[in-house]
Give the backbone structure.
Amino acid sequence: MLTPDDNRLLTQVGPGTPGGELLRRYWMPVCPVAELTPEKPKKRVHMLGEDLVLFRDGKGQIGLLPENCAHRHVSLYFGFVEEDGIRCPYHGWKYAASGECIEQPFEPKNSPLKSEACLRSYPVQQLAGILFAYLGPLPAPLLPRWETVASKLGTRKITVLPKHNCNWLQAQENSVDPVHTFYLHAHMLMEQRKNDDQFKSSVAYFHRPIEGIDFELCREATWTGIRKIREYGGAKPEREVGHPAIFPNILIAPQEKGALVTHWRVPMDDEHTYIMWLEFSPTVDGSTVEQADSDIPVNYLPHPLGADGEYDLTDFPQQDLMAWETQGKLFNRSRELLGTSDRGIVMWRNLLRQQIRAVQEGKEPDGVIRDPAQNGQIDLSIEKHRQARFEREMATAK
Ligand code: FES
Ligand SMILES: [Fe+2]
């Protein structure tokens, strides 16, 4: 349970809020690059409580600027994308991707007003078919090259989930909640398809009794996070290797055949979250694949809430979405009752609180990469990390 003040501290994302200042230290995905087309080279973006406009000008420069024109605050989104910038639809002031105001058609030629009209532009980088933005203080750190975004030894696909009507932390807390899979996913599917034996056997993996859970705080060179581990009983007992939630808003979920899915939970504002998955499937023989960004398939999932108030709960993402949205747009954690199975959530909140404080004290938070030598490609090989950690612990114990 959290006090209302603590809840606000951990969930607010806007500029100037302690949580918002922390989250601004990290690159966040904005959208698949495929969304900027020659026919529509612009997009409205709502991120970390800010209204922005994203565009690609005729020269190919990508700009991410505040949505509202410096003149009289009309939305630039409805303006004209030109060779060298975006022109406001109201009186034609034009802005380059750098944010510089380069034209004010009805003002005197050498008016100082032009330099006053500069907008802040946010750095944008493209990787794995995704545009990432950085909204924090400059200089920007490096865009992390997770193996899922940087490796050439496999193929990728992108899934964009519907806008979630809830705070980002509700989604991220789920990443350190290992027991929810039993009822929310497996049991729910079993109940829906009671008479379908073939289907039931495909869900059986998640329907095994969970007999133990464990959490590990990981402090790797390039990321901090929590690895959750489940111990299954039943006919096929297993202790999972464990997969990590990466601070502040990423989950790495292993799939069959060595595939890894990176989930980003991007706060739009305190009550809305943008979620994107990038699935990376390694080649069987370890061979290199040339997959251009433009060849990465992008799939969009619809929102599962019907006009009748019923959610379509026939698959995992819809089930998770229902759970997070029905906690409330901004879950009031002063009314929760945490149990022992929630200790991963307590660990995550402690980590978040600690990193917010670090930024308040002028320090760099965990997982911000500035050394290119560390960012060639960040290995997420889960088994290897576990082994490396074990070896470090053994060395310290000696
Ligand atoms: S409001 Fe943009 S040019 Fe006037
Ligand atoms: Fe889930």
